[in-house]
Every structure is written in C-alpha cells, then in structure tokens.
C-alpha cells in the first residue's frame, strides 16, 4: 500500500510526548505549530491531486509468511466452529492454576483436621472416664469404715455405666475391671448400654457426614467446576454478512480474516482471540439487529456518509462542530445513559457504512473517514472526551482495518495536546493512517484523496446538497498562478441569449478575484460581473451565472500578490434558453 507523505501541516501523526504540567504542554504545542509554519514556508510547490491504494486481498499477492498465517488462521477457525468451541469460555491460566493449588491445599489439610477432631472426641471421653474413676477408688474406702458389703455394689454401679468407654483405645485397662464387678444377670442393662453406644456412633457418623461431604459429592463438584460452559454456536456464523466457516469457500471470508490478521501483524493466535472477542461483543450487544432499531436522527448532522474518494471508498464525515450547540451536547453526553445511547447510535452508523462496502477481493473494503474539528468543543469537555475515547476503542477492537485513512481537518491549536492524550490508546497501525490539516490546508489536503466534485462546498469543493446543475457532464480544469502574477480564465459565450454557469475554487491561500464579460465586438462595453474581492483559504467556492445578449466571453481574473504559487480549479456549462 502506497503511503502518501503530506507536506506542511498535512502530516502523518507521530506519538508526541505527554507533558504533565500545563505550561510545558502549551510550550510544546506552540513549538509544534511553529515547526508546521516553518514547513509551510519551505514548501514551494503545491502537490497535485494524488491518492492511495489498499493492501491487496488476493491470496496470490500475499507474502509467504502472510499466506501461512492466513492458512493457519482458517484451520484454527474451522476447528473452532465445527468443534463448537468458538464461544467456549475458559478461565485464565493463572486463575485455573490458583484454583488447582487451592484444592490441593485443602485436600492436604483435610486429613489432619479430621484426625484432630477425632482426637478431641477421644480426649473428652477419656477425661469423662478418668473423672468418674476417682469415686470408684473412694467407694471401697468409705465402705470399710461403715459396711463394706452393703456399700460395695453402690460403688460398682458407676463402673458398669461407663463400660461403653472401654471401647476407646485409651480406656482398655479400665474396661476389664468394670466387667469383673458387673453383675452377670443384668442383661437388660447391658442391652440398654449397647443401644446407647450404637446411637452415639450414629450421631457421630451423621456429624462427620455434615462436616465432611462424601468423596463422591466432592468429585461431582470438582467435575462441575472443571466443565467449561459452552454456548450453542451456529455453524453458519458470519460477520458483516460474510460466512466465516472457511470450508464454505466464500470469497469474502479471506477478506474479513485478513483484516484481523493485519490488525495483529499476522500473529494468528492474537488475531483469533480478537475475532472471538468481536463475535462475543456483537452477540452480547445484539449488534446484528442494531440496524432495525430506531435510535433517532438527532445526531444525523454530526455523523454522515457523503460521496466517495478517488479510489471509490465511501466517505464518512464526523462534524464535531455541531456539539457547540449546548442543547445537542447535553442531549448526547448529559449523563451516563445518554452517552450509552450516543455510542449505540454511533455503532449503528458504522454498521450502515459497512453496508456500503463490498467485502470481496479486488473490491472496496474500507472507508475514508474525515473528522472536522471546526468549532468543536475542546477536550476540557470531559463527557465528550470520554465518549470519543470509548468510540475509538470500539472501532479499533471490533472494526479492524475498516478505515483506510482518517483525516482531521480544520485542526485547532488544542488538538496537538489532545492527540498527546489520545495517542497511547491507538495502535501504531492506526496512527499511521491519521492525517492532520490546519484550516489553511483543508482543501489542499482533501484534494489529495478526493476529487473536487466530491468535496462538500464548505470544505472548498464543488459538491452542494441537492445540486444537479452539473452532474457528470462538465470536466474540471485547473490553472496555476505563479507568485506575484495574474492569470485569466476565459469562458466562451458564443450563443446569444444563453446562460453561463461556473464554479471556481482557489487552493493555497489568499488571492484577488474578479469577473467580467468581454464582448466580441470591440465597440461594445465590457461588463463587470463581480468586482475585485479577496478570496481567502477556507472560503467556499465561487458560483455565478451570466446571461449574454451578444457574443463574447466571460473572463475570470486571479491576481496572486503573495510569494507562493496558487492553484485554481474551475468548471462551467452553458444553459440554453428554451425555444
């Protein structure tokens, strides 16, 4: 793709350094402006109309590494669509690793905790048994003083009740003693004790079940967590009306995939992730149906499409000056809800512009975008700044390579400081497509990319709204006026009673301009149509008419008093009088 080098103020943007303090920033802006002015002084020649070409979308024109990247991208996409994994949501590697480590740690800590719980239970029971063994020893001593035979059975009863504790490892010695003193005929009491022990065991098992879920349940939960959430994806999935499944063999598929590859410097994995995020973003925000929504026409004057450039790219205009109107500004950016509506409206406009493209090899697959900053609110307006930053982010992330050139015209001084803040959010490839033109260079810059017939009159071109006077029947001619000299443009008026119509625009700076009708008959008087006047850069083109009553010619005189060459473009036609 041939990149035009625009001299003077129409230059490709480089990333300027951001200066934190206000005064240094102003100094940097002034310095940048002075450099641009110096460049203007050094420019002696006005560049002729030129244009640029897009990178080829034919596979045969790609370099070998680009062909391989495209092939790998298509294979990866084919597998993802057919395998129904294009929208598979996976946890980041770091998160997955942390989850695994956490589970492993819990697993390692679980056995000691269970052992400790068991140990505490054993300790409690041991303490209980030891606490009741003391009366066992004291009972015989008391019986000797009073009546040994009568008091002995009373002392032995507690031992019998504590026999279940004999099952515990730490009370093995106490158990035999209890069994020896227990009456053999007390079968009912024994049965009761056994039932109580079984009941206690059941309670303990139930408590353990609540505290520690069964291994099977843990496994099921782990499997549930490990199972990725997969959404149902249509294998007929498409983007901007182009099927993405490579095996379908659609010629537009390569064009779309190449846009994502070029946006990521032919890094397949990054391009694939970008495509996935774009498709997910469109799905979550219902972008495929956004054209059916009625979002109003309040912002139609700010963003619109008008005409095509020299290569056939549709021209998208962003006229930020309309936001000088406080009512419209508040309507678009007044609060968060209104900013969201603005962004959705802007996305809808982008989708309409994409509809004008032909996403096929050899066809026009991108736009020319022109941003007019005349009377635009300054970046100090936080709401506008935030909204523009979001809009740029959406364009970069979800509409890669859909803007062939982004031309900023009527750029004020503050733009350089604003660009310093915005540039870090732009990719190098995006920055390389940006062209900047100060007010005096607006028409000259646009002529490099757009024919004068397609440039709106307010930017120095011949295109007027609802104007059908010329159509495509009249060719545009041009003359160059050397420094310190004059040039005359003669328009023949041979048909008596006819009406002449002409357009003229001056490129390159201020000149003196006048119009006269000079009859063929030397005895007739010259008629002044337009007295001499100053025509400055940025003025709208001149349009005038004259009806002649005798043969002659209309003479347009351009007097260039400056030290630089000027360029004048003009066209004319004769409107015949109806018989």
UniProtKB/TrEMBL annotation:
> PROSITE patterns attached here?
CRAL_TRIO, GOLD
List each copy of the GOLD domain by range.
443-574
| Region Disordered, residue ranges | 81-226
Q: Where in the cell does this protein reside?
A: Cytoplasm; Membrane
Gene Ontology annotations of biological process type: cell division
Give this protein's Gene Ontology molecular function annotations. Answer: lipid binding
Q: Which GO terms describe its cellular component?
A: cytoplasm; membrane
Coiled coil: which residue ranges? none
> What does the similarity note say?
Belongs to the patellin family.
Return the protein name. Patellin-4
Q: Which organism is it from?
A: Linum tenue
């Amino acid at each position: 793709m041939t990149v035009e080098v625009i001299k003077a103020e129409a230059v490709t943007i480089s990333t300027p350094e951001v200066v934190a303090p206000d005064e240094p920033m102003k100094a940097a802006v002034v310095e940048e402006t002075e450099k641009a002015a110096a460049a203007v002084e050094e420019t002696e020649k006005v560049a002729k109309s030129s244009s640029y070409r897009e990178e080829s979308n034919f596979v045969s024109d790609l370099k070998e590494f680009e062909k391989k990247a495209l092939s790998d991208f298509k294979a990866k996409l084919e597998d993802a669509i057919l395998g129904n994994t294009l929208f598979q949501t996976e946890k980041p590697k770091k998160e997955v690793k942390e989850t695994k480590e956490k589970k492993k740690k819990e697993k390692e800590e679980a056995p000691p905790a269970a052992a400790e719980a068991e140990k505490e239970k054993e300790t409690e029971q041991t303490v209980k048994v030891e606490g009741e063994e003391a009366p066992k020893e004291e009972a015989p001593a008391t019986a000797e003083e009073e009546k040994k035979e009568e008091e002995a059975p009373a002392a032995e009863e507690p031992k019998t009740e504590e026999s279940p504790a004999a099952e515990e490892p730490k009370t093995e010695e106490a158990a035999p003693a209890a069994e020896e003193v227990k009456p053999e005929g007390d079968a009912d009491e024994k049965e009761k004790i056994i039932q109580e022990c079984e009941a206690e065991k059941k309670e303990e098992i139930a408590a353990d079940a609540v505290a520690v879920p069964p291994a099977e349940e843990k496994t099921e939960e782990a499997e549930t967590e490990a199972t990725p959430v997969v959404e149902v994806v249509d294998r007929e999935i498409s983007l901007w009306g182009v099927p993405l499944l490579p095996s379908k063999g659609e010629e537009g598929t390569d064009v779309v995939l190449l846009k994502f590859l070029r946006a990521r410097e032919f890094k397949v994995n990054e391009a694939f992730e970008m495509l996935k995020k774009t498709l997910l973003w469109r799905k979550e925000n219902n972008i495929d149906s956004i054209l059916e929504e009625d979002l109003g026409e309040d912002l139609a004057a700010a963003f619109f499409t008008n005409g095509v450039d020299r290569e056939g790219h549709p021209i998208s205009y962003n006229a930020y000056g309309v936001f000088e109107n406080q009512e419209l500004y508040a309507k678009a950016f007044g609060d968060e809800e209104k900013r969201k509506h603005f962004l959705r409206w802007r996305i809808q406009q982008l989708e309409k512009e994409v509809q004008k493209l032909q996403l096929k090899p050899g066809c026009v697959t991108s736009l020319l975008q022109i941003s007019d900053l005349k009377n635009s609110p300054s970046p100090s307006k936080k709401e506008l700044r935030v909204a523009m930053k979001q809009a740029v982010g959406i364009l970069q992330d979800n509409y890669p390579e859909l803007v062939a050139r982004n031309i900023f015209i009527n750029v004020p001084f503050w733009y350089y400081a604003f660009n310093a803040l915005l540039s870090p959010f732009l990719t190098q490839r995006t920055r390389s497509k940006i062209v900047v033109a100060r007010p005096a260079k607006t028409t000259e810059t646009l002529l490099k990319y757009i024919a004068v017939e397609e440039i709106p009159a307010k930017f120095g071109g011949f295109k007027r709204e609802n104007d059908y006077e010329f159509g495509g029947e009249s060719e545009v001619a041009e003359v160059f006026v050397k420094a310190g000299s004059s040039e005359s443009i003669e328009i023949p008026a041979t048909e008596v009673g006819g009406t002449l119509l002409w357009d003229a625009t001056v490129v390159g700076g201020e000149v003196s301009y006048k119009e006269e009708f000079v009859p063929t008959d030397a005895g007739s008087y010259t008629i002044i149509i337009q007295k001499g006047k100053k025509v400055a850069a940025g003025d709208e083109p001149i349009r005038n008419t004259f009806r002649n009553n005798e043969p002659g010619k209309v003479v347009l005189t351009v007097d260039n008093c400056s030290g630089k060459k000027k360029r004048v473009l003009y066209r004319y036609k004769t409107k015949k009088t109806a018989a």
